[in-house]
Description:
This protein has helices at 12-16, 20-29, 44-50, 60-67, 82-90, 103-107, 122-132; strands spanning 3-10, 33-40, 72-80, 116-118. The chain has 142 residues and is an alpha+beta fold. It has a four-stranded antiparallel sheet with strand order 2-3-1-4. The two termini are 17 Å apart.
Amino acid sequence: MATERTLSIIKPDAVAKNVIGEIYSRFEKAGLSIVAAKMMHLTQEQAEGFYAEHKERPFFNDLVAFMTSGPVVVQALEGEGAVLKNRDLMGATNPKEAEAGTIRADFASSIDANAVHGSDSAASAEREIAYFFNDNEICPRG
Ligand code: RTP
Ligand code: MG
């Protein structure tokens, strides 16, 4: 499997729970490297733009309200099969359905406050990484 990148966000609930380091540790133990990172408090416009694909969904307003409710940590992860590997580490969207040992099973409290975001495809990853990072803010591992 080829080396690729994915975009990850530690959402406001997980930042508030003080588990940034525990989540980073899971990425690194799974062979993913953090090649870009920043902490930020998303504006309404940033959150709406990021989740634009969900604009017509009934949960869109709640999603934007939640994502702007506190600081997040945004990172690009690099490694073999990074997109799928990160989705496996995250677990199902609804923590009640997430497999034991996944980030959402361990740290998420609800389908809204579900601890992490991860790109769902290579194409999404490319768009989402460019949404948050300039090329000179990404530090590939050689
Ligand atoms: P994410 O984009 O945040 O990584 O989550 P995901 O791919 O697992 O789920 P997605 O379908 O992309 O939905 C984005 C976020 O919207 C909220 N959601 N609520 N009430 C609902 O039925 C519902 N469905 C989705 C979740 O917080 C989800 O993470
Ligand atoms: Mg998604």
